[in-house]
Amino acid sequence: MTNQRIVSIDFLRGLTIALMILVNNPGNWGDLFTPFSHAHWEGATSTDLIFPFFIFIVGASIAFSMLSKVSDSANHSRLILKVIKRGIIIFLLGLLKDNFPFIIDTAEGYAFKPFDSWRIMGVLQRIGLVYVFAGIIFIKTNWKQQVGIIASILLGYWALLNIEIEGAYVLELGKYAGGNIVTYFDNIILGDNHMWKSVNINEGYVLGWEPEGLLSTIPAIATCLLGVLAGTWIKKDLELLEKIVGLFAVGALLTAISLLWNLVFPFNKGLWSSSYVLYAGGIALMSTGFCMWLMDFKGYSKLAKPFVIFGSNATVAYLMAELCSSLSWFIQVGNQSLNQYLAGGINSFIPHAKIASHTYALLWLIPFFLILRWMYNRKIFVKV
Length: 384
Prior knowledge:
Blueprint (H helix, E strand, L loop, with lengths): L6 H18 L25 H17 L9 H24 L3 E4 L2 E4 L10 H18 L2 H18 L20 H9 L27 H18 L5 H22 L12 H24 L7 H8 L1 H17 L1 E2 L2 E2 H12 L3 H25 L7
Antiparallel strand pairs: 1-2, 3-4
Helix pairs in contact: 1-2, 1-9, 1-10, 1-11, 1-13, 2-4, 2-7, 3-4, 4-7, 5-7, 7-9, 8-9, 10-13, 12-13
């Protein structure tokens, strides 16, 4: 049972990537159905679960790929170097992706985007950092120690976000990009010019906001370690149904704890709050259990095929979609971007604004799926 291919994990990886592309490319950000839009600040929609789901699966993949190798301590140095190398590559790919196409429109015409205004953090950058730290923790610790590290991160982060420093910031976790230690830390380390966007200080917000900041990446390590523990459990020499029951039981427990914790430390993707870690992790565990029951236990694996194709080249899929999206916003057609021009064309056929917006996102998936299917059929798998 330990060497059996778990179809559901491949399915979940691909589904997560497909959903990341889908929710990142609507026709109009102002016209979205609630499940396909992010919570404004506190709370968590289904869209807010996509990123932590992927980080959870990264953790499971760490266990799948290295579990048989970590028992021999002689392998540790080599494995750690491999983890660091891969994490750096993922980080650099994210850095390049978030600043593509490296050109800005100025009063004097197009110019190279200066390095002092490059965005430093981002989705792939967070994944790269989380992969390094979670990978090293997995290599050097056992599952009991990993549970302790998760608990320490979540409780320590909760305490950290309840600290105030007079003259620097006040405790304001409920305000979008408000005065809290996460934003304060990112502004000091990254600098306003290297963050995702600036927001209007006249509206009560600070300048410079980074949704994938440095400090909030720490609890994301706990999300990855939950995936590591799930992967370790799935690889155990147990009956498949016993594994499924275990995933459901722990997932339900974590979800219940998160709902209680939410009362005093609300779910918050921007801050990656501790309650949000347990909420997303609990649902990820139960979702994994359900997919294993449906596909690996009941045998309905044909449902997985389209998403296995997405997951087989997950990084390629994400980069292709994001780079093409950046180009579509950069290229101008008349007085609007190519993205707006294409979305407007869809809207002219579908009068309902929200349906048109999501139809555009679905159509956006098709060319990438065709490319990925071609790669899959020819066994072209790009590994970072």
